[in-house]
Amino acid sequence: MAEAGATVLTGLVGDVSIPAYSGTSVTWEGEIDDAKDGAGTFSEVKLSPKRLTAYIDISKQFLNQDSVGAEEMLKNDIIRAISDKLEATILGNAAGTTTQPAGIFNDASELTDVNYESIVGMEANLEDANVLGEYQFIVSPTIKATLRTTPKSGTVAAGYIMENGEIDGIKTFSTSNAKGIVCGNFEDYVIAQWGSINNKSVA
Q: In whole angstroms, what is the distance from residue 90 CA to residue 82 CA?
């Protein structure tokens, strides 16, 4: 997600509210007519901390072999597990709960026919919604394989939907954690972190 441009906020304390504004509206009026109220509505997106947890029982004999190397190996493995779980949750289809954030694919429309027209339609939907900035695609390996072997039109001469790591000229990332294909400006996606990894050793 970070490679795709997601905004990462670190070192947060307590719940965090990000303000949102629906936008100002303007109307054409006569030379001496009163202007209409164009104020939009204010709202907020509330971010609250969630916890990823695990514990590992380690024998003293294991630590005595090479305490520094053994501990470092386990720390790195836990970090990889956390990163993988976080990405799988973000790119998953589960609904949000009090202990787990919702996935991007929750309530997403199923793309039943992967073709060039449907891909261009995704881009058009973003433009219709006035989503600005640089778009990126994130796809599953299965979708990636399909896009790399599906011609844009009926002939191979027109090229394939995905070529040179791009779809329609848009940079594309692939991960086994994705549940399909998503396109957007991921700078608008915020990943909030309230603290670093906490660990405790018990002799």
A: 12
SS3 assignment, position 34: coil
Alpha helices per DSSP H over 9-140: 60-65, 67-90, 116-128
Edge to edge, the sheet with strand 181-184 lists 162-163, 166-167, 170-174, 136-139, 181-184
pTM for this prediction: 0.79
For residue 34, give Cα distances in angstroms to 26, 29, 38, 39, 58: 12, 7, 12, 15, 75
What's the chain's average pLDDT? 87
Tell me what pLDDT residue 198 has.
67
d(CA 86, CA 2): 12
Give the separation between CA 201 and CA 53, rounded to whole angstroms.
15
**Beta-bridge partners for 9:** 192
d(CA 122, CA 141): 19
pLDDT tens string 135-168: 999 999 999 999 999 999 877 888 999 999 999 9
The pairing of beta strand 190-192 with beta strand 7-9: parallel
Question: Which of 124-133 are b and which e, b meaning 16 or more Cβ less than 10 Å from the residue's Cβ?
Answer: eeeeeeeeee
Distances (CA, A) of 102 to 11, 52, 120, 167: 22, 14, 26, 26
Residue type, 174: S
